[in-house]
Structures are given as structure tokens and as C-alpha cells.
Amino acid sequence: MDQALKESISSWLEGRAEAVGFAPVERFGDAPEEHHPSQVCKDAATVIVLGKTTPRAVLASPGYNLHLLHRSYHTIYPFLDELGLELANWLEEQGHLAVQVPSYAPMVFRDLEPWGVLSLKHAAVRAGLGAFGRSDMVYHPKYGSLLRFGAVVTDAELPGGPVIEEEPCPPDCSACHEVCPPSAFQDGSFQKMMCLGHTIKHGIYKLALTSAEDFQFIERIINTAGYNYWLDCDECLKVCPLNNRKKV
Question: Whole-angstrom Cα distance, residue 47 to residue 26?
């Protein structure tokens, strides 16, 4: 394990990402084969996860909460993609293979369900940047669920950070379940497609996805014309006590 290289990466990223974690590829043993780090980078050994936060004040905006959240997310995504690309190129200058993982798109669609090339939420947990809460989101000890994630997969063998085992949610808290407009929490589990159907909107959907034949090309449509989606709901983010703490 190259501790010196890990420290160099952390120094290189200082001031660029609010959260950085390292997950050895051995921690991805239960990942679906098609979405394993080894499918992203040849001889994958480590996933470096990067986190950039959304300002808390976006959630509290009296008149423009969703407008500001939309622009925050779509500013953070390209930032993380560019940062990942720079880090991957820097690692290759050090003699390693490295590939940046998209922070959002392009995605892979399986039975009309969108999947990331690599699950960045699971990568963040395995890199010690947080733990899954009752909302099925990842909660960082300082930033709650306000982080957007990017990643770089490399063949460099880097020491992993400690994994957070503790339940992040306050005892007996079910605020996100109670406030959810589409009731996406059912039978003790989160119904991802119910949430997405209610929350993610785009003007192109009604124009380009009008027939069964159109849905054969959903991956191409969403990854190109549908990229800059609108968020129509953030109730679970606003009500969560972990997102209302000061970032100190």
C-alpha cells in the first residue's frame, strides 16, 4: 500500500473537494459484476471518492429553493467530472492507470431503471465518507446528505479509510418517510422509481418518450438531451435534521 501517494493525492485535492475517501477494491465484493470497479479501470485496486457540498441555505431559500438546488447540482456535477479527469491524468503522470467515474451521466439503464457506471453512494460508504440512513441516502458526519459524489478508479494500491459503522439518523426519526409526497418508503424499503418519477423532470421527456419504441432509446435520450434535468421535490432534504446543522 502506497501511503505516500495517498497523502500526495489528499494534498492535491485540498481546497477542491470537501470530502475525500479511499476504498480498496476488495470492499466491492458484493457489487454487481457489471458495475464493479474492475469494469471501469483495468487492474483496478482503489476507488478514490470525491465529495462536493450543496450550500445549506439552498434548502432554506424562501422563494427559489428548487431553482437554486437545480443549479447547484448541475454546477457540482461538471465540477466533479473535471476534477476527476484532472486527478486521473495526474495519477497517470505518476505511472498509474486511472479513470474518472461520471458524477451523474452517462448512466446505464436496466429495465428502464437508471444505474450509475459505478454506484457512487456505495463507493462513498466503502471509502468511509458516510453511512446509509433511513432515506437510502448517504450521510456524511459533517455535511449530512448534501454531498454530491464523483470518483476515480485507479490501479494504484492505496490504504483505505475507516468505514463508518454507526447509524447516522437520530433515534426514532422518520421525518423523511412522513414528508415524502409520493410515499416512496413502503414496507421498510425505499422505492427508487417512485421517487424518480415524482422528482426528476425534463422538457424533453414528453417529446422524445411517447411510445414503446422510443423507450428502446431511453439511455441515449436521457444521457444526451435529458441531462440537465429539473428537480421537482427536495422535501426529504429539507426536513432532515442532519442537513440543518452548521458546517463546523
Answer: 10
Q: Domains of the chain: which residue ranges?
A: 3-154, 175-243
| Residues 18, 129, 75, 17, Cα dihedral to 10° | 30
Cα separation of 149 and 167, whole Å?
A: 20
Q: What is the pTM of this model?
A: 0.94
DSSP string, 136-166: SSEEBTTTBT-EEEEEEEESS--PPPPPP-S
pLDDT (tens digit per residue) in 117-153: 999 999 999 999 999 999 999 999 999 999 999 999 9
pLDDT digits (tens, 9 = 90+) for 210-232: 888 888 888 998 898 888 899 99
Cα–Cα dist 129/122, whole Å: 10
Alpha-carbon distance of 135 to 19, in angstroms, equals: 21
Q: Are strands 113-115 and 131-132 parallel, antiparallel or unpaired?
A: unpaired
Identity of the residue numbered 198:
H
